[in-house]
Design goal:
It is a single chain. The chain is α/β, with parallel strands linked by helices. The N and C termini lie far apart (54 Å). A hairpin with a 6-residue loop joins strand 7 and strand 8. The strands form two sheets. Strands 1, 2, 3, 5, 6, 7, 8 and 9 form an eight-stranded mixed beta sheet that branches.
Length: 176
């Protein structure tokens, strides 16, 4: 059995187009962290994310997609998402094997490569509340803006049903 065929950025855009989903993409220097992307905010409307590829003690895989200001407590997250024991980061090799992307390029768009589905998508509720969102289109040298309803349609078209949860906001927690 050979290595899985990884979808390219062009494959992703073709898949989105086939679903009737319009997107806008901005090219930029490679971004590896939320902090790296902060300088681009004036050019990009909508929400921005932090994306974590995690596994539990039994090997179950999770893609956590949270709004960038979310507080993600990795010591307790497994309780909210039904994981077995504490979560840890999946290796770069596992990430490439399952989602077809490298660290720094983790994105819900990578679910296109997860066939048949092995990953549970854990999605921050704020991504479904009407505002557009920005994610890397399988590479970290661009960001693609997608409408909230279209994000959900894309995820479902890849054979995934998201587990939607509420993450806290760092700014809100600091103000209390």
């Amino acid at each position: 059995m050979g290595a899985p065929t990884r979808k390219s950025r062009e494959d992703l855009f073709g898949f989105l187009e086939g679903l009737g989903i319009a997107t806008e993409t901005i090219e930029h220097p490679a971004l590896f962290t939320v902090a790296d992307g902060k300088r681009l905010r004036l050019e990009m409307r909508g929400l921005h994310s932090k994306n974590l590829f995690l596994k539990d003690k039994k090997g179950r895989l999770f893609l956590v997609v949270a709004v960038e200001d979310s507080v993600v407590d990795l010591k307790r997250l497994h309780e909210a998402i039904g994981g077995s024991g504490r979560l840890s980061f999946g290796s770069a090799d596992l990430l490439l094997d399952v989602l077809g992307v490298t660290p720094g390029s983790v994105t819900p768009f990578a679910l296109l490569n997860d066939a048949p589905p092995r990953v549970t998508l854990v999605l921050d509720r704020r991504f479904l509340e009407g505002e557009a969102a920005n994610f890397h289109p399988l590479v970290n040298t661009a960001s693609t803006c997608i409408a909230a309803g279209d994000l959900l349609a894309f995820v479902r078209a890849t054979g995934h049903e998201p587990l939607v949860i509420d993450f806290g906001m760092a700014e809100l927690a600091a103000d209390l």
